[in-house]
Amino acid sequence: MAELVVLIDHTAGTPKKVSLQMLTAARSLAADLGSEVAAVWLGPGAADASAQLGAHGATKLYHWDSDEASAYVTLPQVEALEAVLDQTDVAAVLFASTNHVKDVAARLAIRVDAGVITDCTGLGVDAGAIVATKEVFGGELITTSRVADGKVPMFGVASNAFVAEPADGAAPELVALDVTLSDVAKAAAVTSVEKQSDSSRPDIAEAAIVVSGGRGLGKEDGFELIEQLADVLGAGVGASRAATDAGWYPHRYQVGQTGRTISPSLYLCAGISGAIQHRAGMQTSQNIVAINKDPEAPIFQITDFGVVGDLYDVVPALIEEIRSRTS
Amino acid sequence: MKVIVPVKRVPDTAGDKIIDPETKTVDRDAVESVLCPINEFALEEAMRLKEEHDAELTVLLVGPDEAQPVVRKALSYGLDAGLQITDEAIGGSDALGTAKIIAKALEGTEFDVVIFGNQSTDARTSLVPAAVAELLGLPSLTYARHLEIDGDRIVVHREHEEGYDVVESTLPAIVSVVEAINEPRYPSFKGIMAAKSKPLNVKSLADLGVSADDVGAGAAAATLYEFEPRPPKEAGTIVEDDGSGSAARQLAEWLAEKKFI
Ligand SMILES: Cc1cc2nc3c(=O)[nH]c(=O)nc-3n(C[C@H](O)[C@H](O)[C@H](O)COP(=O)(O)OP(=O)(O)OC[C@H]3O[C@@H](n4cnc5c(N)ncnc54)[C@H](O)[C@@H]3O)c2cc1C
Ligand SMILES: Nc1ncnc2c1ncn2[C@@H]1O[C@H](COP(=O)(O)O)[C@@H](O)[C@H]1O
Predict the structure, then answer these.
(1) What are the E-state strand segments in chain B?
(2) Tens digits of per-residue pLDDT, A19-70?
(3) What ligand 1 atom has the least distance to the C-alpha of A276?
């Protein structure tokens, strides 16, 4: 049976939410295509995660337990995936459309002559082929496209585009991969990993709720208030470019055209005007809330709920309201 | 040291986009085109290598004749020479097609480092740099927020969600940069004037030995067959804070209704 190959993105032994979302999407595609869902886990930890992956639809789990998977830049993952594709009849490859994984996809695509569609927000089957929808030009247009015949179809799946739902799948069949890295694959080494994030907060691409702050905070300390609001909501923290440029918050939290594109269930921003470049990174969020003292701020064109007011009055009052309701 | 900076001409994000219903590509004549802003960070980083290592800098652009002002614009930052690949067959190429053209152009050029932007503001695939690296069999040190070259070694701080990885390889290498890496300078008046007379080499696909069949819309791996404007959003609730705390209360109620709290 042809296989829908899903590259599992994981951190510290736990699959990221996007991975379970991809498996859920793959399950319904596989049903339409008459294929099976094969997950791929690169690096240690596959055995522990296998039950969860199976529950979400993987009937097979290819795994490569070696630390080499992350010891070098990108290519170990490419070569492990090549080993998977070598031994299976592949219907399509699904991967998380995040920066580092897109590099894996690009290099793999050249090796196996694939066509790649990144940042897919919808996947369906039409006339036996997978069709993908994605938002382009900052979400102004929605396109539907498919990979040309004769190419391996590869789809980068946007975080939060699908809802992860466990089915009652059994534990997947485990298939250990035998990978011998080429010399090229070892040419760029990862010499250290610098973790700087506060791991108590979810990553903004994965988070169901993101709270962002902008120039309207007026000062770096303003982010303490944003973080407090985020923490009572269990949210991730984002920032506009004006805020990251000012050095108030690190660039990796920047939302927008040249930052990250996210699609949480709730995006709540304070002191952000809603410039087109900012909207490009968040306007597919399911619910948008803004707090801004300027009633003419463009962000209010896309809000589901807007508060016109000074964030230094509204946000503390909101935190109190939430605390009193949840305690 | 020789450094190449591939730059792209993109429609201005702030302008209205029009997709040609027949070719299903962006009508680039209908909107003002600019140097992709992310490439300014790559140009700045290249200038630093010029200042620190006396590097020789070349701009590379794949695109039509009309894109030449973008090459000149890039040169105005202080780079030394331009290389433009222009051919009617190029139009409609996807990211991997563009990567094949860039890789061929690089094969015929001497270089130690190629500095890409981490994405382009229109396509936003981020596929081109890693695909070029693969085609050339070179390391892809992408998403650099810091870059250092010492002899024949390059060290990059590769940004990710939780911080960054320190990665290193020998040269030559392919790099892409994120905007956190530096603060681009503005081209000086002198730079703008000098850019007009800098050498600009224009080549066709045939000059590179690329078959027209391998690029362009026909060879694009993904076929676009439908597009529609994003449906307009229904107007939401707007409340004004009158200092009584009622706005925050209403927002909290709304959040509770939506089950966010
Ligand atoms: C090539 C390019 C790429 C870009 N990429 C990005 C990107 O990825 N992400 C991004 O965000 N931007 C990006 N930008 C920048 C973008 O154009 C805007 O400049 C930026 O988003 C503005 O940030 P801001 O909304 O925080 O600041 P401003 O636009 O200055 O808005 C501040 C807002 O805060 C409000 N305010 C002030 N004080 C208060 C208060 N006390 N209480 C409540 N409200 C208050 C003001 O009314 C105002 O609306 C990019 C620009 C370019 C040219
Ligand atoms: N037509 C092009 N000519 C030269 N460089 C390009 C072209 N398209 C993309 N690039 C480079 O590839 C980077 C990533 O673009 P993309 O993969 O389209 O997101 C850009 O920042 C440019 O450096």
Answers:
(1) 2-6, 9-11, 33-35, 56-62, 81-85, 113-117, 140-150, 153-160, 163-170, 173-177, 200-203, 222-229, 237-240
(2) 999 999 999 999 999 999 999 999 999 999 999 999 999 999 999 999 999 9
(3) 17
Sign, Cα dihedral of B159, B160, B165, B167: negative
Residues 6+ apart with CB under 8 A from B29: none
Token duo for residue B26: 């962006």
Strands A114-126 and A90-96: unpaired
Its pTM surpasses 0.90: yes
Say whether residue B163 is in contact with chain A using an 8 A CB cutoff. Answer: yes
Taken in order B190, B191, B195, B198, is the CA torsion positive or negative? positive
- Taking the alpha carbons at both ends of chain B, their separation in whole angstroms is 57
Does ipTM come in above 0.90?
yes
Q: Tokens 């990144």 label which residue? A: A118
B105-150 pLDDT tens trace: 999 899 999 999 999 988 889 999 999 999 999 999 999 999 999 9
Contact A271, A277 (CB under 8 A): no
Q: Does A14 lie at the interface with B, CB-CB under 8 angstroms?
A: no
Tell me the best of A225, A272, A279 to mutate to test the pocket of ligand 1, counting ligand atoms within 8 Å of each CB and taking the most: A272
Query: Cα–Cα distance between B134 and B144 in angstroms, integer?
Result: 18
Q: Nearest residue on chain A to B10, judged by CA atoms?
A: A137
DSSP state of A273: -
Q: Ligand 1 pocket, A233 CB below 6 A?
A: no
A234 touches chain B (CB under 8 A): no
Cβ-based contacts of B26 with chain A (< 8 Å): 137
Instruction: Tell how far the Cα of A232 is from the centroid of ligand 1, in angstroms.
Output: 24
